[in-house]
Amino acid sequence: MTIVPDLLGYIAATLTTSSFLPQAIHTIKTRDTQSLSLGMYSLFTSGVLCWLIYGIVIDNQAIIIANAITFILAASILACKNL
Amino acid sequence: MTIVPDLLGYIAATLTTSSFLPQAIHTIKTRDTQSLSLGMYSLFTSGVLCWLIYGIVIDNQAIIIANAITFILAASILACKNL
Known about the structure:
Two copies of one chain form a homodimer.
Chain A: H1 3-18, H2 20-30, H3 38-57, H4 61-82
Helix pairs in contact in A: 1-4, 2-4, 3-4
């Protein structure tokens, strides 16, 4: 009975984490950040950093891995927006 | 001992959920979606929908509320990108 929710959770985590890869590639390639919200990427990157610390505190490897990857991608997009 | 991680989790969830609000406002106002990646918003919106179903299946109200809000915001941005 726990296989279905576990599988759903892994699919969800894979989708939301990997989604920032096409945006990071698009932004790094084009350097176009006009329609990206600075507010969004500031809040989001801070939030993902909190998730990462949360994962370390509760010692949950899935949360640590997913948020470490998302943090690198979101921080790269934020850096392009600020440069 | 659980207050610190719980608080961190709530801060993290609030930041990552609310971050899509400035992007949604920015996108709806300007209708400029040039630098937004269609791949990102397609994957992300699908992922958030999976998180929402996951929350319903495991009956976790925090996951349901956070992802219902994020889904509305991400889907609005995706709709602007496609229109």
